[in-house]
Every structure is written in C-alpha cells, then in structure tokens.
Amino acid sequence: MLRHVVTWKLASEDAVERGEQAAEVARRLNALGDVVPQLRSISAGANSVYPDANWDVTLVADFDSVEALEQYQVHPAHEEVVAYVRSVVAGRVAVDFEV
After folding, report:
1. pLDDT tens digit sequence for 41-58
2. Residues 23, 58 contacting (CB under 8 angstroms)
3. CB 2 within 8 A of CB 34
4. Is 3 exposed, middle or buried (CB count within 10 Å of its CB: 0-12, 13-18, 19+)?
5. pLDDT for 10-38, tens place per residue?
C-alpha cells in the first residue's frame, strides 16, 4: 500500500481567512472519498494549533499502488479540488511511502 501525504501553506496573511480556506480545502479533499474509486482511505484536516508556526492543511491518502495514485491525480473530481487549492496556496510539500 502507498501512503500519499501532502501539506500546504496557504497564501493569505489573514489568520481567519487562512483558517477558513484551510477548512474548505480539507472539506473538498475529504469529499473525494465518496467519488474517487482508487482511494483506499483519505483524511484531510486544517491545522488547529500554532498557526504562526505550522503549515495550514494536510492530506493523508492511501492507495493500493502507484498506478492508483496516478489515476487519482487525473480524476476530474480531484482536478477540480486541485484548481481551488492552487488558487489559495503559497507552498506545497509531499511524501509518498510504502506502508
């Protein structure tokens, strides 16, 4: 199984706006669990502690294979979420590892 972990730093300087956007990113990502068949599990959440030091939102998703991850990445529902994320993000880091 492959675990896909992504964390984003949002662009807004306003902490309230950044929190709202992070919650929206997490909501949209979590909704993919009902739509994208390649997802084995998905969990996304907005940061709730140390907003000045921590990044804003993280995704943890599990897939059966690299091929399943690649299919997820081009799924139309995922691409729609990506468009929103790109509109509010300043930075992204990701790690994919076997579990």
Report:
1. 999 999 999 988 999 999
2. no
3. no
4. middle
5. 999 998 999 999 999 999 999 999 999 99
